């Protein structure tokens, strides 16, 4: 091997070593940028200043490029996740407006969990502060309903046990309790969130055959939105999961009291007393509650 060959090999080795060091620096600085940390100092011997400047410039460009890709992917994943969690909101304001809203929200509200399905609880409150959405005064409540439906859908399953209801005739109703459906909860809303939800999700209303029905519901919903300003109290709504799909409906204040008793794990006897106090037909209420799987068992 002659001297020129040795020099070429030495030069090649130096370039590979420099590139390896540059790659390590790039990885350290990219991670530091993403997590807002100071990168640890390199333990390698310093490279010649001119070469270092050239490599540092390349590293900074690569870091910014990598960070841009990471940020864009993060934003797109966030928008997609929010559109799954808040489908009614997206349907009401349109995809473009929803993407703009989501980008603003993602920049303000930090993601605290690895699971995107757990992200978005603050969106209803965030919507209230958006002047661009003032023409949608109902949107915050719609977002709240979307979020709660999303949560109910993720509730653990329960076994429906219709045979246990026979114990209402033979058991001690002071000791027995109704087992509520997964996610059973009582809510209140000022705006007609049920109608707004139906406008977006009812397939019939999206079809040609449902055009007249959609127009009628739109007219009714618009009137309800205008009347909401003058309402003395909000309307009660019960939300639960029967089988694998969330269910919800408006209920009277009297029925709301019954739901509160069930969720408070009051005895069957106390629930029956509440039903009697409000002059609700016990047989009719019980039949409906079992049929709709509002209650899953008696135990």
What's the quick description here?
The protein is built from 13 helices and five strands. It is mostly helical.
What is the rounded distance between the termini? 91 Å
Spatial strand arrangement across the major sheet: 2-3-4
Helix share bin: 55-70%
Total separate domains:
2
So what's the overall shape? Answer: globular
Given helix and strand content, the structural type is: mainly alpha
Summarize the structure in words:
The chain has 13 helices and five strands. With 299 residues, it is mainly alpha-helical. It has two domains: 14-150, no CATH class; 160-298, no CATH class. The strands form two sheets. The chain has a three-stranded antiparallel beta sheet, with helices on both faces. Strands 1-5 form a two-stranded antiparallel sheet. Helix 2 (49-85) packs across helix 4. The chain is globular, with a radius of gyration of 30 Å. Mean pLDDT is 86; it is low at 2-13 and 34-40.
Write the layout of secondary structure elements.
Layout: H1 3-35, H2 49-85, H3 87-93, H4 95-108, H5 123-128, H6 139-153, H7 167-170, E1 178-180, E2 185-189, H8 193-201, H9 203-206, H10 211-228, E3 235-242, E4 245-251, H11 253-263, H12 268-277, H13 282-291, E5 295-298
Antiparallel strand pairs: 1-5, 2-3, 3-4
């Amino acid at each position: 091997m002659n001297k020129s060959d040795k020099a070429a090999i030495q030069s090649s080795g130096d370039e590979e070593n420099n590139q390896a060091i540059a790659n390590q620096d790039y990885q350290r600085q990219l991670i530091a940028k993403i997590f807002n940390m100071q990168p640890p100092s390199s333990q390698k011997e310093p490279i010649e200043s001119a070469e270092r400047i050239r490599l540092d410039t390349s590293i900074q460009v690569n870091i910014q490029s990598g960070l841009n890709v990471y940020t864009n992917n993060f934003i797109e994943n966030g928008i997609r996740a929010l559109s799954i969690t808040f489908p009614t909101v997206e349907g009401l304001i349109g995809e473009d407006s929803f993407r703009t809203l989501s980008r603003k929200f993602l920049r303000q509200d930090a993601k605290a969990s690895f699971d995107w399905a757990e992200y978005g609880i603050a969106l209803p409150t965030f919507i209230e502060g958006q002047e661009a959405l003032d023409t949608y005064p109902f949107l915050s409540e719609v977002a709240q309903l979307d979020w709660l439906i999303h949560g109910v859908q993720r509730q653990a399953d329960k076994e429906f046990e219709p045979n246990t209801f026979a114990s209402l005739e033979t058991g001690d109703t002071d000791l027995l309790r109704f087992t509520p459906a997964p996610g059973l909860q009582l809510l209140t809303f000022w705006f007609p969130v049920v109608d707004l939800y139906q406008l977006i999700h009812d397939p019939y209303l999206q079809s040609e055959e449902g055009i007249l029905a959609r127009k009628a519901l739109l007219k009714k919903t618009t009137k309800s939105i205008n009347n909401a300003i003058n309402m003395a109290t909000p309307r009660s709504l019960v939300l639960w999961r029967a089988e694998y799909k969330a269910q919800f409906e408006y209920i009277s204040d009297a029925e709301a009291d019954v739901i509160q008793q069930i969720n408070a794990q009051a005895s069957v006897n106390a629930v029956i007393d509440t039903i009697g106090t409000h002059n609700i037909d016990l047989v009719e209420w019980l039949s409906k509650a079992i049929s709709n799987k509002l209650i899953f068992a008696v135990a």
